[in-house]
């Protein structure tokens, strides 16, 4: 998997026009949020990974994530209306840890195959602290079971 990032969220948001080449693509893929940067080969299971997610349009999905991470929606998750539940959990994580969300790192990888399989494999490999349960792929259950071992 080829990864873009890690990019500190503050750097990405500081000068959006100057950093426009660092925007996520409009392709499908997976993304990761971490507390510290990783080597150029991609994120690792060193305990710094907070969240792994996916999106059919990475730029839109990461935009929803960032809005929630910065607290730009509801205070409580109940009753629906959230743009991104993972971003909402990251907001509350940052509140509890007294960490600015803009100090977290973001990276992504374009996926050509099944997003559910790619997210499940990455979540198992990286062990994120805040991601929901590892998704199950209904289209490729045999392939996914093999990749778990």
Describe this structure in words.
The protein is an alpha+beta fold and 149 residues long. Helices cover 34% and strands 16% of the residues. The protein is built from five helices and four strands; from the N terminus they run βαββααβαα. It has helices at residues 9-14, 58-69, 85-97, 115-126, 141-148, and strands at residues 4-8, 29-34, 49-55, 105-110. The protein has a four-stranded antiparallel sheet with strand order 1-4-2-3, with helices on both faces. The longest helix is centred in the middle third of the chain and has 13 residues, at 85-97. The protein is globular, with a radius of gyration of 15 Å. The two termini are 19 Å apart. The model is unreliable at 144-149 (pLDDT under 50).
In short:
By secondary structure, this protein is an alpha+beta fold. Helix content is 34%, strand content 16%.
Descriptive tags:
149 residues; disordered C terminus; alpha+beta; 34% helix; 4 strands; single chain; globular
